[in-house]
C-alpha cells in the first residue's frame, strides 16, 4: 500500500533487493523504522543496479517527474530537491552539480537512476541482498481493467514556481484514452473528458493548493471520466500525452 510520509532532512533508508531467476528485483525501503514495499522495477546493467525512479518515489511519498520533452526530471524527497538535467549530464541543486555519466538511462519513457546516485543525492544508506529463491510478499493488487479497457489509475502534480507553472499528470492503465479539455474562466475551472475510460481506485478530490491550482475532482459517468481542475488567476493550458510503459496525459497550467 502506498503511503505518504513527511520526514525531516536527516533520515536513513535501508533498501533490500531480492532477485528472481530473470534478474528482476523488488525493493523495500525502511524510513525511520517503517517499512514500505515498492513495486518499482529494478534492473542491472554491467553490474550496476538501477530503479525506475518515478515509480519508486510515488510509493515512498516523494515527488518525481520526468519530462522527455524537456529532457529533465525533478526529484523531491523530504526537504531535498534535485533537477536531473539529462542534456547537460548533471544533477543540480543550489549551485551544486553531480555528474550523471553511467548513473542514469531511459527505457520505454521511464527514467532509471542507479542506487549509488540515489544514495549520493538523498543520503540513503543502502545495502543489497541477493537471493536465488525469494519469497515475495503478497502484493496489494489494484483493480484490473478488462482486456482492452482503459482505466485512470492515478493523479499527481508538480509545481515549478521558478517557471510559473503547475503540471497535472493523469496516469492510465492500458494506454491514454482520447480526451478533450475546455477552460471555463467564469468558474475558474478546466474540464477534461477522458472518453472510453473507467475510473480506478483514485481518491477525489485531490488537493493541490499551490498558487495556481486548488483541487482536482474526478467523476465517472456514461463510459467516460470527467476531471475538473480548479485554478486561480489567469492561466494558459498546454497539454500532451506520453504512451509506452507508463501511459499518461499531462496539463501544464
UniProtKB/TrEMBL annotation:
Residue ranges annotated for the Copper amine oxidase-like N-terminal domain, each copy included: 30-130
SUPFAM superfamilies documented for this protein: Copper amine oxidase, domain N
Organism domain of life: Bacteria
Keywords: Signal
Signal peptide interval: 1-20
Alphabetical list of InterPro entries matching this protein: Cu_amine_oxidase-like_N, Mao_N_sf
Pfam families in alphabetical order: Cu_amine_oxidN1 (PF07833)
This protein's name: Copper amine oxidase-like N-terminal domain-containing protein
Native source species: Candidatus Caldatribacterium californiense
